[in-house]
Write a structure and sequence with these properties.
single chain; 889 residues; alpha+beta; ten-stranded antiparallel sheet
Length: 889
Amino acid sequence: MENYMSPHKLLSAATLLFASALLCRGEMKTTVNYNPNESATSAFKFKDLPSPSKTDAARDAKFVIVDGERDENGGDVDKLNDGKTPTEEDQPAENFFFNAGTPGGRLLVDLGKVIEVRQINTYSWHPNTRGPQVYKLYASDGAATDFNAKPKGIDPEKSGWKLLAKVDTRPKDGTGGGQYAVSISNSEGPIGKLRYLLFDMSQTESDDQFGNTFYSEIDVITGGNSASADSDAQLAADAYVVHTTDGRCTITIDTSGSPDLKDWAEHKLAPLLAEWYPKIAAMLPSDGYEPPKAFSVILRPGDGVAATGGTRITANSRWLKNELNREALGALLHEEVHVLQQYRRPRRDNPDAPRARPPGWLVEGIPDYIRWFIYEPQSHGADITWMRGRRNLSLRYDARYRVTANFLDYVINHYGKDKTLLIKLNAACRDGKYNDDLWKGYTGKTLPDLNEEWKAAVEKQLARAPAHSDGAVALSRVNRDFIQRGGSCVLASYAIVANYFTDTPISAYFQGYCKHFGIACTDAADAERKYAEHFDAEWRKRNCRGYEVILDLHSNSTVECFAEARRHFYGAFYLDSDGHREELEKRLAANEAFLNITYEPGRDYHSITVIQDGPRLVARDTNRKGLFEISALAKIGKLRDSVLYLAAAAPKSSSVAAATQDPPAPDSTANTLTDAEKAAGWKLLFNGKDFTGWHNFKRDDVLPGWQVKDGALVCADPHNAKDIVTSDSFGWFELQLDYNISEGGNSGIMFHVTDEGGSAWATGPEFQLEDNAKAADPQRCGWLYALYQPPIDPKTDNPLDATKPAGEWNHVRLVLSPEKCIHEINGVKYFEYVLGSDDFKERVAKSKFARMPHFAKSDTGFIALQGDHGQVSFRNIKVRTISAPPKNS
């Protein structure tokens, strides 16, 4: 990812002069760097300040909350000195922040002993108002007679503390969302000899309860661990140097942080980068542009995959080691494209000219297009083969990375036969002149029209049957030689099926299992041993059957062998399968199918793979080579559980469905439309079975925190869910749905959401959902968040409340039309308003949304469901478009 770095221009910081035994003589200096949302990355790269350190003095310090309380949706205080940073802009569990609805709090850092401190750095990241930092920093050596290490409710300066700095990075306009680095230092040398630091942290805004900053890391730099040494400012003296094949660029590769990659870097990576740099430069020219004459690559342990800032690529060596024979080279070629893009760099002829920021989907989509469709098309990393294996795929041009790459490939092949379309797009991005209207001039069609054409073409391809789905199982393709080493039969049985469809070696699935769970292994044999040791504990920990663990990998793992397998087949799991023998045999005979079963031949359990071969059943037993015949399933012993694997193109049957031991009876009428509703133009937004039509905001998939359970769309884990949005956009409409919220839960329905904001609520107004009895947010259920609320109910002297208690289903009706908008809960009308009216604009101007330039500015957009403040379930989600207020409203 390319990183655009610029210091924040609006900083309020007190300049303090010191001359004392505690603090060294000189002027305290506060420096702030800011990365806006569009350019912030997990690498935390800044223009003038170092990235967070992993070896600073705060690493072993003790962090204690002195006043206030942490928010349980976030991480604990150890997130501030664990040397790890968030990988995404809105990742509560990887940040520390004080509780919602509180004014902040005080945080004590005990360094353990008095040390000479040169610099104190704080880092934060959030797409909206929780990004900026507001705090006072105090320091002490603990020697004062009146020293109080935990000053709660009293002035620290009256209890042995010295004020070092006052920090406030909030901008005058806008939300201030983005990534911040704040550094406090002394203009004349060290800050002083200190043991204790006290951060008095304040909320950034009080318009709602979510105003406390997401702090990602706090570093304390001493003379022995300078920030620059840890932030890769200097390359190793023995770094490997290679020149591009045209001799115009020097590439320096530093493997000092991961010496075991030295041979690979010099013999595999270096030749690739040297060969492809001039090729990519030729693909991405523009007037007045000269490719960089040097760039560097640093391989060292880190988070994520890789990131690029200017002419420096930093790659995570831990990830690379696991991908040396798969994605490692392609991922770094992607980063090499970023080095050559050089978007938003000042032009020599007019460095002050205003420049539009290129959209992130193109910034990332172009490198993935070059990687997957020009460098390694044989890998099928973004084509229809890859798409077959994606759950909840969002076919939108701006879905970024591989999906955008696929869109670009389609348009280039159909409208760029002169080979200039990529050149034109790149030049517009580099020169700061890109806008969506350019597509019309380049292709004769608008961007939305191109999206619909491409989407239809992809959906048509996806509807076709994949390879190996044209008949009964061919026994000649079934692996007959693999023998397990002990305790490996469950995964081995699955791997036999996967090997049939994909040709991926059986051993790769044991290595894939270890990779998924982060288990180190030396080779295939070691992987099988490690699997056997881990697997038994894993299914016991989950309190489930063994095959459920394997099916979870098949359905959800991003490890390539499992992802490739699910492109070709799917599986349905049965518990206590004795009652399903007849059904299973019928399905075996009717489809290209494998049946993996666990049975009890004696005291132990064993798994085999059953295959239909004409009128007979044969089995593959991983304890011995070859196949053996069984006349019926009943002959092999007592069945414990089973999985039926069907070719992906085979028609799914309701009889082939995952069973549960005692499932709650779902509402048979849920997620259906009556004939009258269909005639009236209603459309279901949730089918009750999967995430079709939904994806996470600014992602092309759905995070694991969202699940489909018993016909409901469930935010089961708010720590790993985030907001989901519809794939389609809606203008004026009527929306109805049922929701069931947990005790103290908080959620919402947002509308007219666009990608212009850092989060869904930065653009879309929110129909608030919450447990009115116990939720902390003063904005109540049914209200238009921070803007409109219902009248006072004379029976209670409180605003009207028609909600049912937590744990019960409630019904929502939301009407949006040009003339009026209506909010209803359980058939009770709350209020009306008009979007864009003078009254509406006045209310926005007085709210926190006044700082959000794109809030409620679009008259069309996605519908979003909030997923980060509590557990909530949805069902019967339906919508109908309208051009006028509905009758009898």
